[in-house]
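Supplementary Methods, section 5.1.

A reviewer requested that the exact input to the structure prediction be made available. We therefore reproduce it here, unchanged from the version used in the analyses.
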Amino acid sequence: MRTDSSPGTLPAREHLPAGDAGTPVLDVVIPVYNEEKDLPPCVRRLHEHLARTFPYAFRITIADNASTDTTPLVAARLAAEIPEVGTVRLEQKGRGRALRTVWSASDAPVLAYMDVDLSTDLNALLPLVAPLISGHSDLAIGSRLARASRVVRGPKREFISRAYNLILRGSLQARFSDAQCGFKAIRRDVAQVLLPLVEDTGWFFDTELLVLAERAGLRIHEVPVDWVDDPDSTVHIVRTATEDLKGVWRVGKALATGSLPLDRLTRPFGDDPRDRELTGVPHGLARQLVGFCVVGGLSTLFYLVLYSAFRQAAGPQTANALALLVSAVANTAANRRLTFGVRGRGGAVRHQAQGLVVFGIGLALTSGSLAALNAAGDSPAHSTELAVLIAANLAATVLRFLLFRAWVFPDRTDTGPAPTAPVPTAPAPTAPAPMAARPAPAPYAWPHQAPTHLHATETTTSATTPLRPACPHSTDPGDTR
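The structure derived from this sequence is encoded token-by-token as follows.
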């Protein structure tokens, strides 16, 4: 998992301007591997749809993943024939590697990709990218598992897709519904700071990108899609499941240890500058209360179990002290990470020391309650002891939250005067840089720049394309969509 720092905190979202004539607002990437037969009809169908329905300038980029057939030649022909089509050649396989390469070098403010088989109905393309253009969302995905989606596919893929998403929800707490649909888009400013954190170069690239974006608090828009599967497609279940589980473990470990600087991806609250001029307003109070209550409830159960165990071998005061000490250390660690969002190991020792001071206050409250109970009567029942301890812990919990919020984990962003106007993190570009001046891992052949070493010409012209022609599907043995 990469831990290098991102360029900086994202600015507030803004509606993208229409731009100059010919400047692409959308760059749709089609990753391909040995698709010499399927590529031409699918690219022409996508181009026809965009030219007919998309209100902005666009580009279609064919990302060749080290094909060994004539796919590079076919892609070059399409780029020479259609001005809005470009091609990129990579010498290594990997869908994630292809998307990272093209997205990192593209000058379009909205970046998207779709599979070459175009299983997703293209009528969902404009709803997919519209929230990104308007500034409402940071990423957008097509979902085959939404209620309004209409999907035709076999039981094997249905099982794989739903089982995989259940794993993501259970292990990484993912809230998006469909990680594997090959129909996604992202704003370029988001991609520039998010891509350096994504390590995977294969099929897990999508999932890792979405999990990190969601954990960073970025907004993911979901679009129900109509999706028709290729029944003859081959899926290597064991290999795909193994790689995905490795990726889930790696990302989960990085998130648990706080080794990713996701706090640097946080968006300002709202797009109105007045939202950033408010002073004296607690940040995230509701979320912190919910998180603290959940952690507190679990800690209380943990404490009661420990107390009951220690009570078998020690007196009530000793059992209470030991149980409260162990649960307090666990409670401070959990609140540090989950409630107050402190990542990394910096300051962990100081936080635990301050937490022990808070523990001492809780110990005084609970021990005093036990002492008062024992003074009121001889040998009180165990159930009575638990009831008194629960009441004392409730009082200590309120005080603990106030001390955690104001002393142990204070909001450092509240110090200093609030800015009177939003400060952009980077100057807005006046014009997209020419592709020739942009470094890229692989040579590009954008419109009107067909490779000089390919001299074959396209001799077949297509007739008028129907609205939904029969389109060949991918037979890549590694396809897991």
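The CA atoms of residues 49 and 123 lie 8 Å apart. These observations are discussed further in the main text.
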